[in-house]
Specification:
Elements (H helix, E strand, L loop, with lengths): L9 H22 L20 E9 L4 E8 L8 E7 L6 E7 L4 E7 L5 E7 L6 E8 L7 E9 L6 H25 L1 H10 L2 H11 L5 H18 L3 H18 L22 H22 L4 H22 L19 H19 L23 H20 L27 H10 L11 H4 L11 H23 L4 H23 L17 H24 L9 H5 L1 H10 L16 H24 L7
Parallel strand pairs: 1-7
Antiparallel strand pairs: 1-4, 2-3, 2-5, 5-6, 7-8
Helix pairs in contact: 2-18, 6-7, 6-15, 6-17, 6-18, 7-9, 7-13, 8-9, 9-13, 10-13, 13-15, 14-15
The protein binds 2-acetamido-2-deoxy-beta-D-glucopyranose (2 copies).
Length: 629
């Protein structure tokens, strides 16, 4: 969140209230138009949907009746699902089925009599392909069955649109970069000045190419320098925040319909799973920088606490009322309003971490003895009370997760329920985390479409932003806070900062490797976005420290990159986040596609929408308009 401190005049608050009510109105009218996601498992052939292929099943088996089952590789320890029931008594020699193309699948063919397995085949289907499965019996023995897959029509190359989009963006950046570079050369500038009048040149430089002129640049630098001394605001933090935010917007808009731009069904990571924790992380970093600078300016802790509390409440209310879809379904929707959510979780995390910081942080560090033994822990030891509380919180998470008895489910269950774990615990989605939310908040008040219901066919509601996971989100923000402490502690010692970031990254990586045993599903605690498991937090902190190190090096140390285009949305994160949710269904963020099952068209739409938010953020930045709460 934009964690520069607000100047809350009463006019400001009035403005906020009116903006909120306007947004509420818009979001209610817009969300009624939103469409449901396509049903992947649709068996109506004819028109294939995204990520599907056609499979014709030809059988020459001497069995009257057999069943083709399927299972996705993505589905860990899953029950096989029925694909087709073939019945020769219906005078059919072939059947048509629709198969999933996102991951390799295993097909298993069973005879109905005795449910004996006849054969099994592992295959990676490609989107919109046309395949045949041939089932043949060997003449010598009826038990000896061969199954074979033949490609009738070659499928298209699904990921081509991503590659094209990538090159288009690279081209745009090269043009912008060269353009701004050329325009800064004196000879070109002089030549241009002769061609057109100077005012026009200035306009060209400023607006057309979107890059600041030299005069602007130096004033910006001065501005930036004053920030650094005044409130420790670093460009790299806004860049990192903007990067997460932009990926988040793209992912929320659908990510081109590609599975790796959507949330993972249960354990493991996709690109979509990376960004929320990074956002939380960078929030932690900003909390430390801003609170310490406020304290150094002589603000009392109580005053800061009230500010923090007020901001948390605002954030929570925006999340509850503005972005909540359920709220708009009608007057009765209070009975099924979703209580938790992304902003709500950010709000609670912000409150807890800020209070932790206000309780224990010292505006000026104690003089440390240059003791060899604690040299490596210089940025940890002075904060030991915070660490104790964090460890206590983590113990609470571990105890509740692994020891809380959940009726009808094994204690310490971490799975997705549904058809996972061979269907034994189908109503246990999320174990203790899911149970706590359903008891405390109520079934109707949690998220109804968790990502586990696609692959694992889970049916119970489960909230990926639930109560228990909030503990680990606090831990994530605390690691971000640690990054902030490093930045303050080693102020202007760039090398030290980079070394510390790298060390923390490695440390987090080692912990994650141990917790997960370097595997997706088999570890002690698997990486899981839905649970916000502790290994998810450490893994994402590992990435975050590393990425922050890179960005810090490029943007704040070497200054070879100004942080664009991510810097601008990073400066206006609340506005971009709320805006992208509220205007999701409006042109130019969404339009009617000619072919709603085409990745290329979805990708185009989602990228255009995301780019527009970057442009909006850029314009607002130039006009110095920031929405801060
Ligand atoms: C798939 O291929 C088969 C065999 O080549 C053909 O008969 C059928 O019409 C094709 N189906 C579609 C939808 O293209
Ligand atoms: C799971 O819940 C559904 C609906 O509440 C119920 O019909 C089903 O019997 C439950 N399954 C198990 C294994 O408890």
């Amino acid at each position: 969140m934009g964690l520069a401190w607000p100047t809350c005049a009463s006019a400001h608050c009035l403005c906020l209230v009116s903006t909120l009510s306007l947004i509420l109105l818009v979001s209610c009218t817009s969300s009624s138009m939103s469409s449901k996601p396509p049903d992947i498992a649709s068996k109506k052939s004819g028109h294939l949907k995204m990520d599907q292929a056609l499979l014709l099943i030809h059988n020459e088996l001497p069995y009257e009746k057999f069943i083709v089952y399927w299972r996705s590789d993505q589905c860990y320890q899953c029950l096989y699902q029925t694909l087709v029931v073939s019945d020769l008594r219906l005078e059919r020699r072939s059947d048509i089925a629709v198969v999933d193309t996102r991951h390799p699948v295993t097909l298993q063919i069973n005879a109905t009599s005795g449910n004996t397995e006849l054969c099994r085949i592992h295959y990676r289907f490609r989107e919109f392909g046309n395949y045949s499965l041939w089932l043949k019996a060997n003449h010598s023995s009826t038990r000896d069955i061969t199954c074979e897959i033949i490609i009738n029509q070659n499928p298209g190359y699904t990921n081509l649109p991503i590659i094209i989009a990538f090159f288009i963006y690279v081209a745009i950046f090269i043009v912008l970069f060269l353009g701004s570079f050329l325009l800064r050369l004196d000879t070109v500038q002089n030549w241009l000045c002769k061609q057109i009048n100077p005012v026009e040149t200035d306009r060209l430089i400023n607006s057309e190419l979107g890059s600041p002129s030299r005069a602007d640049l130096s004033s910006q630098d001065a501005h930036y320098a004053s920030w650094n001394t005044a409130s420790q605001r670093l460009r790299s933090l806004d860049t990192f925040r903007g990067l997460s935010l932009i990926i988040m917007v793209f992912v929320n808009y659908g990510g081109g319909g590609y599975w790796f731009f959507k949330h993972q069904s249960w354990n493991g990571l996709t690109i979509a799973d990376l960004v929320f924790p990074w956002f939380v992380f960078i929030m932690g970093t900003s909390i430390h920088l801003s609170l310490i600078s406020m304290l150094r300016k002589g603000n009392s802790r109580w005053k800061l606490f009230w500010k923090v509390l007020w901001r948390s409440i605002q954030l929570f209310l925006i999340g509850l009322f503005v972005i909540n879809e359920n709220y708009c379904h009608g007057p009765l929707s209070w009975s099924d309003i979703r209580i938790m959510g992304v902003l709500q979780r950010l709000s609670i995390t912000y409150l807890i971490v800020s209070v932790l910081e206000l309780l224990f942080t010292k505006p000026l560090p104690d003089p440390m003895p240059q003791n060899r033994a604690c040299f490596f822990l210089q940025d940890v030891i002075p904060f030991w009370p915070q660490w104790l509380i964090i460890l206590a919180l983590e113990s609470v998470w571990l105890c509740l997760t692994f020891l809380l008895p959940v009726p009808g489910c094994p204690t310490g269950y971490l799975g997705p329920g549904g058809i996972g774990d061979f269907g034994k615990y189908s109503n246990c989605t999320g174990g203790a985390a899911g149970y706590i939310d359903r008891i405390v908040l109520g079934e109707d008040h949690v998220y109804q479409h968790p990502s586990s219901n696609v692959v694992y066919k889970s049916t119970v509601p489960y909230d990926p932003e639930g109560i228990l996971g909030t503990i680990n989100s606090v831990i994530m923000a605390f690691f971000g806070l640690q990054a902030g402490k490093i930045l303050v502690f080693y102020k202007n010692q760039h090398k030290q900062v980079l070394v510390r970031f790298f060390t923390w990254s490695v440390f987090m990586g080692v912990i994650s490797a141990i917790l997960t045993k370097c595997s997706t599903n088999e570890g002690f605690i698997p990486v899981n976005k839905n649970l916000w498991s502790i290994s998810y937090v450490t893994t994402l902190s590992c990435f975050a420290f590393f990425l922050l190190m890179l960005i810090y090096f490029l943007v704040d140390v070497k200054r070879v990159w100004m942080g664009g285009p991510f810097f601008y949305p990073g400066m206006n994160s609340i506005l971009v986040y709320v805006g992208h949710e509220v205007f999701e269904n409006y042109f130019p963020f969404k339009w009617k596609m000619q072919d709603s099952q085409s990745h290329a068209q979805h990708l185009t739409q989602n990228l255009v929408a995301t780019s527009i938010w970057v442009v909006i953020a850029y314009i607002l930045y130039r006009k110095k308009i920031f929405w801060k709460i």
